[in-house]
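Hi there,

I know you've been waiting on this one. I reran it after we fixed the sequence typo, so this is the corrected version. Both the input and the resulting structure follow.
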Amino acid sequence: MIQRLTGTLLAAPIGALAGASTAARARLHGFWRDLRLRRRRVWSRGGRAYLELRELATDERRRFAAAAQDALEALDGIEWARVNAPLGRLVVAYDEARWPDPLELVRRVEEVEERLGLLDHPFAPDPPEHPGDVEPFVRGAVTLGADALGLGLGLALRVVRSRPEPIEVDLAALTAALQHLPRARAAVERRLGSAVADLSLGLLAPLTSGLVRGWSGPIVDALARSLHLRELLARRDCWQRLEPTLGADPEHQGCAAPARRERPAPLREGPIERYAEGAQVATLGGFGFGLATTQRMESASASLVSGVPRPARVGREAFGAWLGARLARREVVVLRPRALRRLDRVDWLAVEEDLLAPRRLLVGDASPLGGLDRDEALARAAALLDPARPDEVQRAAPWALGPVASLAPGREDLARRGAALARDEGGQALLLTRHGAPAALILAEPAVDPLARALVTAARRAGLRLALLGGDGPPATWAAADARLPGRVDPDLAVQSLQADGSGVLVVTSSSCSGLAVADVGLGVARPGAAPPWEADLLARDGLGAALLLVEAARAARAASHQSVSLAAAEAGMGLLLSLTDLEPRAIRRLMLLADAASLLALLNGVRLARKVPDRGQAVARATPRWHALTAGEVLERLRSGPDGLTQAEAAARGAASRRGPAGPRRFWRHASPRASWN
């Protein structure tokens, strides 16, 4: 009887607790489902919408592409629909007056997915982020808000002067370990995905810093987030400017999913990866030793706070963020920003050979007719020649330049002399006329683009090996490449042959499926009238100029990594030394301040190096002279000299200027930088 009565009395509260627990689990499960099975990302502008694709197998994606195209194009106001697999988007061109809300397109797409049984497939946890996506901005704004909250919490608790609890110190140390120790971070990302992991840890870090009365950590985090948001804004603006030309043609949208193969060997460790592995062992060892000697968890946690390689990671991220914004401002669409964070591990520059082969016609020589001065003939021809249209007559009264047959029809003698000149020297013979009368035969010869020469020179200076991806044009033998990969070989396999020893490869090409899908950093050259190579990490119209900037950036990225590691090592050494003693909470806060100061220095140094990366593309194109095609007066003008040469005073001044190096802090920093970081 008593047992029945007790059971009756306890049944209600136990049932209520069970119901509450079930409801809590249901809410947690719903939150987790919303986090993983999130809404479809949509970007639309100017009558085109890019709708995110679900995670589908290759066969499922092909079935969906065909069904979606048929279903959508049958609707009134839909011009076309294509699947762009490299971007992970369904691209729809539509009439904005008929479809004012792009979410209506989403509903139609979901109907197709439901009919094919694909509606339950999740979206990828780490999809290729579209340059127009709003989600990265939302994540950045949320974490900036957390930084502000953490800063306010830390300052408020310092005013209260309350002593931090041991659990708060331990939580701050655990957060730092999860955020910056490589294996711990990788475990979190495998569970949550990189985007959700970055958001979760980005929210947790400033709050735990505030709990231990820290104020510097949220400030450094806010600065790093601001750089990232700046990069995202520049990337979005660049995409909005260039999308009307990149995405207007339905046949220029990639349909089939690229056959991505695994790397033959993992990408080699760079300075930061090598340091992080060593720091991980040293940090955990220092934690164990400190716990054994002090018998206090919060004191031992100091080794986790100061030993994690945060300054190294912050320096590289700052460099990549600033570089990404620079690239976007020079009309380079950064499709996959993570590629910029691999520049410090690039060993090979693999370039499509057609981009380096001599193609551009320039004035090479002149054979005067009728007493015309050779210098004047060269000058007039150089002013008239259009390298893109050498077969068309160009006029600037009283001069004209064009094919012999067009300007002097019936003059077989001139035709024979022109053919002999072209045959002997190589190139194309043109006729220069004055007042309609033949004045000179001009040799227009193919020449190497000055940007191509500058690119090869920069690669050698940066310590990169050069590989040529086989093309259909004349061979670029002048480049003296370390490897030539013939066109008959699968481009992906050719690039992977360079990666076999763990080397990083920067691929520059204008063709889709030309090694871009397996490149560590892929720069695709978008040519007018051709399909953009969507598999690339970066898309540029000024291909060689952007490639030159990337090669210079790879050199600077190595310097940024080395110098960030030096800052991290100096800070960790002091932190590990202090962790061997019994630390009071005030000393732990000072240790955290030291770690934040090192991270701030690494951030500023990364920005400094990214700003100093030279962008010499336009200057090289303008300033590289064809000396043999210049008149004597033009040569002297370029050399800033005269017919009588330099005076003794001018020669002495130029010699002194050439010997003069950077002064003050610049000279100190140049000599303080590790020489190996630039090799």
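Quick highlight: The radius of gyration is 32 Å.

Best,
R. S.
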